[in-house]
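2024-03-11 09:14:02 DEBUG pipeline.ingest accepted 1 chain
2024-03-11 09:14:02 DEBUG pipeline.ingest length=239
2024-03-11 09:14:03 DEBUG pipeline.predict start
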Amino acid sequence: MRIDVLGVGFDNVTMAEAVERGMSLLHSEGAHYVVTPNPEIVETCRENAAAMAAVNGADLVLPDGIGVIKGAAMLGTPLKEKTPGIEFAAHIVERMAGEGLSLYLLGAKPGVAEQAAENLKKKHPGLVIAGTHDGYFKEDSPVVEDIRQSGADCVFVCLGAPKQEFWMAKNGPATGAHLLCGLGGSLDVFAGTVERAPKFWCDHGLEWFYRLCKEPKRIGRMMKLPLFLVHVKQEKRKK
């Protein structure tokens, strides 16, 4: 059963359980996709019914960020723990490398996916990189066909929300991949072009503040967090 937070249904799983679920989907017939909403994406879903449908239509919905965890607790329906997309992806890559499975990286600026692929291969020699493509494309068909031809088992789709959720819902089956994961800016982290917050900040739910200090231009996006908490309080009063 999923935990409802402002209309978005989150799977109530630990990181270990999420990874097991992801690997199970990866070995299942057909195409499956994973989304990792944070408060900003939840707010987008509240304003956009199509985005809400794409997010809730995922096979696995993971809470990315402390804001969603706090929101669920405030509503009296606590989630087990936060499951950041970048950490979920890292665990999936490690498991895939152990099984010799193949990964396609889609998204980010030109050159970033290639660098991410190189770094991941160095860290996980057993991983097969099926292919890469940047996120600057106008037509889906050539990209979908490239993924299909590559024979990728899994695709990391890093196009930003809600574009990546729409893309996976629409194109997942045509790619031939069994698992697609919407992971926002994760390729930049894997490529080393963006530094993830140190462990202390992550452990204390302050990763958002660390990124804001590093990238002040994100202030507009970060304002969605207090708005999210306001909406959670309103929902709590209704209940």
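2024-03-11 09:14:41 DEBUG pipeline.report Residues 2-233 form one domain.
2024-03-11 09:14:41 DEBUG pipeline.predict end
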